[in-house]
Amino acid sequence: MTPPPAPSWFKSSYSGGSGTECLECVHTRDETLVRDSKCDGGPVLIVRGQAWRAFTEAVRNGGLEG
């Protein structure tokens, strides 16, 4: 049996252009993984798919503004 391919990380479209505050994400079937792009071997935040969708929808709709 062939192992699954390694996840394909992508940079957040909201990351700054200076290279100091970049997030990378991977979407799997059930989860979204988030990490600091400057520390690719560091910790990874794992968020269940439904929670990630609720979060991104709230961001799009302005529901997280201070």
Summarize the structure.
The chain has 66 residues and is of the alpha+beta class.
Keywords:
66 residues; alpha+beta
Q: Please state how the strands of the largest beta sheet are arranged side by side.
A: 1-2-3-4
Helical percentage: 10-25%
Number of helices, where a helix is a run of at least 4 consecutive DSSP H or I residues:
1
Element order, helices and strands? EEEEH
CA gyration radius, whole angstroms: 14 Å
| Unreliably modeled segments | none
Percent of residues in beta strands? Answer: 25-35%
User: Quick one: biggest sheet?
Assistant: 4 strands, antiparallel
- Count every beta strand, where a strand is a DSSP E run of 2 or more residues: 4
* Average of pLDDT: 83
Distance between the termini: 50 Å
Structural class category: alpha+beta
Shape: flat
Helix and strand arrangement:
Layout lengths: L9 E2 L11 E5 L3 E6 L8 E4 H12 L6
Antiparallel strand pairs: 1-2, 2-3, 3-4
Please tell me about this protein's structure.
The protein is of the alpha+beta class and 66 residues long. It has a domain at 27-34 and 44-66. Helix content is 18%, strand content 26%. It contains one helix and four strands; from the N terminus they run ββββα. Strands 1-2-3-4 form a four-stranded antiparallel β-sheet. Strand 2 and strand 3 (31-36) form a beta hairpin. The longest helix has 12 residues, at 49-60. The radius of gyration is 14 Å and the shape is flat. The protein starts with 9 loop residues before the first strand and ends in a 6-residue tail after the last helix.
